[in-house]
Amino acid sequence: xxxxxxxxxxxxxxxxxxxxxxxxxxxxxxxxxxxxxxxxxxxxxxxxxxxxxxxxxxxxxxxxxxxxxxxxxxxxxxxxxxxxxxxxxxxxxxxxxxxxxxxxxxxxxx
Length: 110
Hints:
By secondary structure, the protein is α/β, with parallel strands linked by helices. It has helices at about 20-25, 45-50, 70-80, 100-110; strands at about 5-10, 35-40, 60-65, 85. It has a four-stranded parallel sheet, sandwiched between helices. The chain is globular, with a radius of gyration of 14 Å.
């Protein structure tokens, strides 16, 4: 069986001061099978431009009109291809081994 894909889903609204660090933490996961999807929810600051700088590193960035965090999360969920979902707010960070450790625990319980 192949290693599961984990989708890291990030709703973003006016998070310019934090979104770069958030994306760096998502991309720094030691688990090698992750996709990162950021939905910009109509930000009025530089969030979308900052997020787009991470597209060459594999981040999928999608812009939508402002509809709220729940709508942004649902949009990201519709785009996700992962076997598992990790929601991450645009002003939060993931420890580098967070996903790998969770999947190790899951695998040990099988």
